[in-house]
């Protein structure tokens, strides 16, 4: 918005391990502090300025996990649904048209692992919407919706609500459109979604993000759902298309936003979504942001290689290279749970990882095929993701997942499902946890910096349990 200092100061070293971010915004609330200071761990800041990103099953989330469910079982369950999302992402890169941006494309978002707190309408109605970087549009269940959850948006309760008809430009971006051949009518449409289907109408209303208001925000008002895959309180798209948050906010945010996703195990700490250049890390190493003409909404990066320990894993460069004509390459995505590489790449990484751990038997748990007794964890080599101009050495908690009993550790990566067009590598949210990921659409850059919870040393919490 009004940043006067350069967002990306020059640096001398061409590579980096991820460094600490300089700005920490933390919702600090643990039970010990609640007893001492009577702090509500899930309350808004006094000035309502927080824009928090929370795991869908955290204690601050309105969504409750299934009874008798354990943390690792939830991760395994979420990761088991990755193939549906990766298949969808792969179908995007083979599209031949760039003129449409569907409101809720089929199989677009899988399960929502992170939600952001927003208010919609006037006065604002509180919703916890799934945050998604690989789609553009927003949609919410509206009152009277058949098959929706109990929490819906009420258009009648908003003084700023307005429907949109087929004559508006935004309606031309909707796939599955049903408009009359002549005259005007409501901009209604039908879509499939991760095995479910829904019908909606394109409308507009005021969207409130922390203290900011976007007065005429276009979104899909869902009136009927069949199936259980649609996010319960809607979805907020952070892609690059014409109906995305960045496009609809105009110059408010200068094409810049960042987020930090907290650990799935974090209950009281929350991550944060920062919009605009103000408050972003001033010293952050970046890699070029690429664009595919077949799917310009996706955040492609120039991914050049993977090191396991000190070994740069060998495989043909075409498995990683970006090809704008085919859509092959690597994207950063907030909705896929564990990083997926095309099969030849993953197999090479897995074999080198197993070789360096050595001396043990490897087993499989769900999507994870390289699990081993935790006592061998000290032998686990670090994994470094190489991008153009940026080396990201993953913290151990971003490369290994542990069973609830603590007896097993697993490599938290997998091969892309073999029933998709195997051209897409996905850097997923488990590998992004506790990192500040910055997107600069205008200057075509993606930045990554390590970010720690300010109060992480209290009552046994590790520093990596939350975002700044």
From TrEMBL:
Domain of life: Eukaryota
Signal peptide per UniProt: none
Biological process per Gene Ontology, one example term: proteolysis
Active site, renumbered: 132, 333
Segments traversing the membrane: none
Keywords associated with the record: Aspartyl protease, Disulfide bond, Glycoprotein, Hydrolase, Protease, Signal
GO-annotated molecular function: aspartic-type endopeptidase activity
Residue ranges occupied by any Peptidase A1 domain in the UniProt entry: 114-449
Family stated for the protein in its record: Belongs to the peptidase A1 family.
Protein name (database record): Peptidase A1 domain-containing protein
């Amino acid at each position: 918005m009004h940043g006067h200092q350069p967002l990306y100061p020059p640096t001398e070293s061409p590579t980096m391990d991820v460094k600490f971010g300089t700005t920490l915004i933390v919702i600090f609330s643990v039970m010990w502090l609640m007893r001492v200071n009577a702090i509500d761990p899930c309350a808004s800041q006094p000035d309502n300025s927080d824009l928090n990103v929370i795991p869908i099953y955290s204690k601050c989330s309105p969504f409750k996990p299934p009874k008798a469910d354990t943390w690792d079982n939830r991760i395994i369950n979420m990761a088991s649904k990755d193939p549906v999302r990766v298949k969808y992402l792969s179908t995007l890169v083979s599209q031949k048209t760039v003129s449409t941006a569907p409101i809720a494309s089929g199989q677009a978002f899988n399960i929502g692992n992170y939600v952001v707190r927003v208010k919609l309408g006037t006065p604002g109605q509180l919703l916890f919407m799934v945050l998604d970087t690989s789609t553009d549009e927003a949609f919410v269940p509206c009152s009277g919706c058949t098959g929706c959850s109990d929490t819906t948006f009420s258009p009648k309760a908003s003084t700023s609500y307005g429907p949109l008809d087929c004559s508006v430009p935004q309606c031309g971006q909707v796939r599955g459109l049903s408009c009359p051949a002549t005259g005007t009518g409501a901009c209604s449409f039908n879509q499939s979604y991760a095995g479910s289907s829904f019908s909606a109408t394109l409308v507009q209303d005021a969207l409130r993000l922390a203290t900011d208001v976007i007065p005429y925000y276009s979104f899909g008002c869902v009136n009927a759902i069949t199936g259980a895959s649609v996010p319960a309180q809607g979805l907020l798209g952070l892609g690059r298309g014409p109906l995305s948050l960045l496009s609809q906010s105009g110059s408010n945010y200068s094409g810049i936003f960042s987020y930090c996703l907290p650990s799935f195990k974090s209950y009281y700490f929350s991550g944060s979504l920062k919009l605009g250049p103000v408050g972003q890390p001033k010293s952050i190493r970046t890699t070029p942001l690429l664009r595919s003409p077949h799917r310009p909404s996706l955040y492609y990066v120039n991914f050049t290689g993977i090191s396991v320990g000190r070994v740069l894993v060998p495989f043909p460069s075409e498995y990683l290279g970006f090809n704008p004509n085919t859509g092959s390459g690597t994207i950063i995505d907030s909705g896929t749970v564990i990083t997926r590489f095309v099969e030849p790449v993953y197999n090479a990484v897995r074999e080198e990882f197993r070789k360096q751990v050595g001396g043990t038997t490897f087993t499989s748990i769900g999507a994870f095929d390289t699990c081993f007794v935790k006592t061998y964890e000290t032998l686990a080599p670090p994994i470094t993701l190489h991008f153009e101009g940026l080396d990201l050495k993953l913290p151990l908690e971003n490369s290994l997942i542990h069973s609830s009993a603590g007896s097993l550790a697993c490599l938290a990566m997998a091969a892309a499902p073999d029933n998709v067009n195997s051209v897409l590598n996905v850097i997923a949210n488990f590998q992004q946890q506790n990192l500040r990921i910055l997107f600069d659409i205008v200057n075509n850059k993606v930045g990554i910096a390590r970010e720690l919870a300010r109060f992480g040393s209290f009552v046994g919490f590790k520093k990596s349990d939350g975002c700044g």
